[in-house]
C-alpha cells in the first residue's frame, strides 16, 4: 500500500483542527499508520523546505513552521500521495476548491494549515525524516 507524509501545521494545531482534519483522511479511506505531535527544529525545517531556500518568504515559513507543535502523520492507501494532495487542495487557499482542506480551513498561502508530500519518492524521504 502506498504511503504519504502529511503534517498539520502549527496554525491548524493551534486552531484545534486536528480532529476535523484526521477525520477527513479517515472518511476518504486512508489508514492513519502513524501519528505524532512534535515541535520542529529550525534545522529540520530548513531541510524540509530546502526547495524554497531562494524565495523571499523562506525566513517566514521557517519561523511559522517552528512556531508551535505540528501533527505529523503517515497515511496509507491507494495512490496515497496523489489522493492526499487532492484532499488537501492547491497551495494557495484562494485557488483551493471548497471541500478541500485548504479550501475550507485557510484563506492565505502563508498559513495554509497542512502539508502533504508531492511525490512517492519525496513521501518516503519525508517519512524517514520525520519518523526515524
Ligand atoms: P505545497 O505545500 O502545496 O507542496 P510548496 O512545496 O510549493 O507547496 O510550498 C511549501 C509551503 O511554502 C506552502 O505550503 C506555503 C509556503 N509558500 C509557498 N508559496 C508561498 C508564497 N508565495 N508566499 C508565502 N508562502 C508560500
Ligand atoms: Mg511541497
Automatic annotation (TrEMBL):
Major localisation: cytoplasm
Keywords (A to Z) from UniProt: ATP-binding, Cytoplasm, Kinase, Magnesium, Metal-binding, Nucleotide metabolism, Nucleotide-binding, Phosphoprotein, Transferase
Record bears the keyword Glycosyltransferase: no
Cofactor(s) for this UniProt protein: Mg(2+)
Binding site for ATP: 9, 57, 85, 91, 102, 112
The protein's Enzyme Commission number: 2.7.4.6
Gene3D superfamilies in alphabetical order: Nucleoside diphosphate kinase-like domain
PROSITE patterns reported in the protein's UniProt record: NDPK (PS00469), NDPK_LIKE (PS51374)
Residues in Nucleoside diphosphate kinase-like domain copies: 1-132
Reaction equation(s) it catalyzes: a 2'-deoxyribonucleoside 5'-diphosphate + ATP = a 2'-deoxyribonucleoside 5'-triphosphate + ADP; a ribonucleoside 5'-diphosphate + ATP = a ribonucleoside 5'-triphosphate + ADP
InterPro entries the record matches: NDK-like_dom, NDK-like_dom_sf, Nucleoside_diP_kinase, Nucleoside_diP_kinase_AS
Active site: residue positions: 115 (pros-phosphohistidine intermediate)
Localization: Cytoplasm
MF annotations from Gene Ontology: nucleoside diphosphate kinase activity
Role summary: Major role in the synthesis of nucleoside triphosphates other than ATP. The ATP gamma phosphate is transferred to the NDP beta phosphate via a ping-pong mechanism, using a phosphorylated active-site intermediate.
Subunit structure: Homotetramer.
Family classification: Belongs to the NDK family.
Name of this protein: Nucleoside diphosphate kinase
Organism of this sequence: Paenibacillus septentrionalis
Gene from which the chain derives: ndk
Amino acid at each position: 500500500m502506498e504511503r504519504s507524509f502529511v503534517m498539520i501545521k502549527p496554525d491548524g494545531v493551534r486552531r484545534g483542527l486536528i480532529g476535523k482534519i484526521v477525520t477527513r483522511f479517515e472518511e476518504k479511506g486512508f489508514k492513519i499508520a502513524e501519528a505524532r505531535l512534535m515541535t520542529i527544529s529550525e534545522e529540520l525545517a530548513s531541510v524540509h523546505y530546502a526547495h524554497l531556500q531562494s524565495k523571499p518568504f523562506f525566513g517566514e515559513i521557517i519561523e511559522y513552521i517552528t512556531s508551535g507543535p505540528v501533527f505529523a502523520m503517515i497515511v496509507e492507501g491507494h495512490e496515497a500521495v496523489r489522493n492526499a494532495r487532492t484532499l488537501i487542495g492547491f497551495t494557495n487557499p484562494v485557488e483551493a476548491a471548497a471541500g478541500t482542506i485548504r479550501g475550507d480551513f485557510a484563506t492565505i498561502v502563508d498559513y495554509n494549515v497542512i502539508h502533504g508530500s508531492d511525490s512517492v519518492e519525496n513521501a518516503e524521504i519525508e517519512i524517514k525524516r520525520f519518523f526515524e
